């Protein structure tokens, strides 16, 4: 620990000790004082020194992750806030190798807590705001560990041999906890948690993150997402469709049965007539993305709708006569892409085509 960090630790040692106190009021006051030291806080400390102290005294010791299960709601909320600041900003102040290790270790700790607190029925975490903070924390750590969603100029300094492998190992070790916690939290009554979990499904489905784990746990994830398509908020239904598209795109050994028995009764018979044009637009894009995926040589083997393909195509075709002009125009462009992909497949004698832009169908 360098000089500045050592001095900072000396100044806040009393608060660090108080986090282990049996008195909940003492723990809460100590956390409140720590929050003031964070970037944007009332009395922010030097980020580099604070990052070192937090890593050595709060993250490596698992002290903050243990406080995520504290009996006092305020302690749980504040500890999540401090951990989120570390994951989002402060960890970047550490030396690159140390930062990668810290994020990877913290992901494992938080994934375990998330499964215990928001992956159970009923929720072990009773406070909806704390549940929201937990999902935000999971999302931030998955982004930081995988490199997905990194800000320009702030991507992880990785090499394929060291950092990439370290992040991959951390993600794979936490895969089951992450997927099961997400599947359960999708049923949260708090709309913000539903939407954030749907975004988390999209993130986990990315090729560089955990598509194989999403495929393994596809059934509970798809089931929870389909239930959310009946939610009263259109933005919840829209992001749910994006997540559904991403989860199914991870591959399915029985895509034809998945469509006919599970997806079609909801998507083709209910969502197709949704009152929101944004929801309908996303439905057409989701259906088109599945059709285009099975026409791509690299993904054709993992997603094949077989005899259900005409029904899926009919969903996109229905968009061409949508009552909203812009939505109808968007669906027409999707049909053109699908037609081009089919034509390319026939010319090549295989099942693929469509070009790199074929995957743009899930864009907002």
Automatic annotation (TrEMBL):
InterPro entries, sorted: ARM-like, ARM-type_fold, DAAF5, TPR_DAAF5
Where would I find the Dynein axonemal assembly factor 5 TPR repeats domain in this sequence?
Answer: 19-145, 176-344
| Disordered as annotated region, ranges | 342-364
Q: Which SUPFAM superfamilies does the UniProt record give?
A: ARM repeat
Top-level taxon in the UniProt lineage: Eukaryota
What protein name is recorded for this chain? Dynein axonemal assembly factor 5 TPR repeats domain-containing protein
């Amino acid at each position: 620990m360098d000089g500045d960090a050592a001095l900072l630790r000396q100044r806040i040692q009393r608060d660090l000790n108080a986090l282990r106190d049996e008195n909940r009021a003492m723990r809460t006051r100590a956390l409140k004082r720590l929050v003031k030291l964070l970037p944007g806080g009332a009395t922010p400390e030097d980020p580099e020194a604070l990052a070192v102290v937090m890593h050595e005294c709060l993250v490596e010791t698992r002290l903050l992750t243990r406080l995520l299960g504290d009996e006092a709601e305020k302690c749980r909320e504040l500890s999540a806030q401090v951990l989120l600041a570390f994951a989002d900003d402060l960890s970047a102040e550490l030396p690159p190798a140390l930062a990668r290790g810290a994020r990877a270790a913290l992901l494992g700790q938080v994934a375990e807590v998330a499964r215990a607190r928001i992956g159970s029925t009923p929720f072990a975490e009773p406070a909806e705001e704390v549940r929201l903070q937990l999902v935000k924390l999971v999302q931030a750590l998955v982004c930081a560990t995988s490199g997905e969603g990194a800000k320009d100029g702030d991507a992880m300094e990785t090499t394929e041999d060291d950092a990439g492998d370290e992040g991959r190992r951390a993600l794979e070790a936490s895969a089951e906890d992450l997927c099961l916690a997400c599947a359960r939290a999708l049923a949260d009554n708090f709309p913000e948690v539903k939407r954030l979990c749907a975004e988390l499904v999209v993130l986990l489905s990315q090729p560089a993150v955990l598509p194989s784990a999403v495929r393994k746990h596809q059934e509970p994830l798809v089931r929870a997402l389909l239930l959310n398509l009946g939610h009263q908020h259109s933005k919840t239904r829209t992001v749910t469709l994006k997540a559904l598209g991403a989860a199914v795109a991870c591959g399915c050994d029985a895509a034809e049965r998945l469509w006919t028995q599970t997806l079609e009764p909801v998507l083709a018979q209910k969502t197709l007539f949704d009152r929101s044009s944004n929801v309908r637009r996303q439905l057409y894009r989701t259906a088109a993305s599945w059709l285009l995926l099975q026409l791509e040589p690299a993904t054709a083997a993992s997603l094949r709708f077989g005899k259900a393909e005409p029904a899926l195509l009919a969903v996109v075709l229905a968009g061409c006569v949508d009552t909203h002009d812009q939505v109808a125009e968007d669906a027409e462009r999707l049909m053109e892409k699908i037609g081009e992909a089919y034509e390319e497949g026939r010319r090549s004698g295989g099942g693929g085509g469509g070009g790199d832009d074929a995957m743009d169908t899930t864009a907002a």
